Every structure is written in C-alpha cells, then in structure tokens.
From TrEMBL:
PANTHER family tied to this protein: NUCLEOID-ASSOCIATED PROTEIN YEJK (PTHR38772:SF1), PTHR38772
Cross-referenced InterPro entries: Nucleoid_associated_NdpA
Organism: Halomonas rhizosphaerae
Protein name: Nucleoid-associated protein YejK
Database matches in NCBIfam families: PRK00378.1
Organism lineage string: Bacteria, Pseudomonadati, Pseudomonadota, Gammaproteobacteria, Oceanospirillales
UniProt keyword Repeat present: no
Amino acid sequence: MPILHSIIHRIDKAAGEAPMSLVPATAELPPSPALDDLLAGFNDAFNAKPKAWGHFAETTPEGEVSSPFASELSDYLDGGRDFVAFSRDLAGRIAELVGAHLSLSGDLLVLHHQFGDTRYLSLALLHHREGFGIDANLAVVPVRQLNLAQMTLAARLNLNQWQAGASKQYLSWTRDRGGKKLAEGFATLLGAEEGVDASGETRTLLKAFSDYVEREDLPEDASREKTDALIDYASDQARRGEPMTLEALSEVLDEQQPKAFYDHIRNADYGLSPEIPPDRRTLSQFRRFTGRAGGVSISFDSYLLGSGVEYDEDQDRLIIKQVPRQLREQLKRQG
C-alpha cells in the first residue's frame, strides 16, 4: 500500500478560553514502516466506523460552490499546488470547525496513497490517550499513544472513481451519532452530498435475497449456505471499506448460475444501486432461526421476528402471518 504523500498538522487547544490554533507542518513525512502501519491501522478503524457515502455536491442550494476542498484537491492533483500547501489550507478549515465544536486537541493526518491501481486521499483527526509501557530497564513508564478508535473526523476519497465520473459513492466520511452538528459541519467542509443510504440499501438487498430464496423454494441446507455466503461476502467488503456489487454477489451466491440473483433483482425492480456500501449493523441482524422436531422443520430470517413471524412465549407457539406460496398451495391441495 504505497504512500505517495503524507503529512501531519497539529490542531491545538490551549488552556482557558484561548481559541483553537493550527500548528502546521512545513514538510511531508518521510517514508517509514511505522507510517505504513499507521495507514493500515487507520483503514481498519475507519472501516469499522459508521459512515456516510456520497460525492461532491457541485453547488449549494443557493447556487454557490459547495466547498473549496474539491477544487483545491483538483488543483493539487493537476500540479497547480504542492501537497504541503494543499493540506495546510485544509487543516486551517478543519481547525476552525473543531474549535467550534470540540475542546480536544488533535493531529490531522492527511495521506495520498495507493492500493493496487487505485489511488486514495485519506484524512483523519487523531487524538491521544495515556497508556503504559516497559522501558529498556524493565520499568513501567507512561506512554502517550494515538487512539485510532476515537478518530472524531475522518474521510476517504477514491480518486480514480472521482476523476472517472462514473460513481456517486467515491467519498465516504465518518458520521458520529454523538456529535450531529460536528458531523454536518464536516460534510459541509468537504462539500459532500450523500449518494446512497447504506442502511436502507442493505435492508432492501436482504429483503431481495429473502424473496429470492423463497421463490426458488430452496432446501433448508441450501438456504443456509447461501445466507452464509452473502454475509461472508458483505462482511469482507465492509472490512475492506469497499461496497458490495450486485453482479459479484450474484456470482458468490451461485457459481453454476452466476446471473440468477442479479436477474431476480433487476426483474423485480427493487430500485437497488449497482454498488451498495454494506451496513454492519443491518448485516448483524440478518440471521436465520432454524429448528426441527417431531417431523416439523422451521426456518426464517431473524428480521421477520415481530413482523412476519410472532413468537408467543406463554403459549409456546409461532404465528406465521404470511404463509409461503408453495406451502399454501400444498395445504389447499391436501384439504
């Protein structure tokens, strides 16, 4: 994962009523194994964060340029300004935002890096925590270290997708539920506009999958195998910080008929985007309840409990509100 350019600017809050101040770096960071490890740690922490996905808004509702960030980034990539100047101007605006909403100091990490053929720009406001270490004399000593889990503000931009103009999901940024105004201010600073509702799209995808399994009338083992394949693929994409693609998912679900699930989605018109950022919380709720006893075998998706399926604990019974079509037809024929 080559790092092309990197820098750290300090955003410092002095004691008392003093305003937030920027202590800008004058030069880029030299390459080092520690910096490579920091990028890997950032990626892991960022991928685990609740995020919004979208793109640069061209103008505000008033018709003004939404943010100078996109134009300054374009100027930097075209060689019109160097990385240090570009990142310093960005750090100045973030310092103002942080000063208005936080009382914590932090270090702004800005990285221009590459993974395979894809180039990214990543940035994160990093805070510190106090810890302990062991020195060369085997004594306990205080150690100040970065707290990547806290990471108040962070964003990652897929430069290839942005410059190609073929996606509306090339920009992702943290959306801290505990600081709504800060998160909104950060999106405004980036000039970002949400292009997809990750949670809603993931729920719709899981509904499409459940419909597909029901339509195909799959045996319990096959249904469970496909559910596991979907969750494994989605979870892997989430860990990598990449969206799910409907075509790739369809291939994962059925190697013999790689287009079957994809065609099901398109023919039923679920309105899904070709690429869907996986929402971890929604995925974690998608599991199947299964049970077999006395000649009765029952299996249903966990999200149906409380809506399509109810459990009466006092009577120890399940109430199925919508009987599957195939089962309903069999019951009618039997009657």
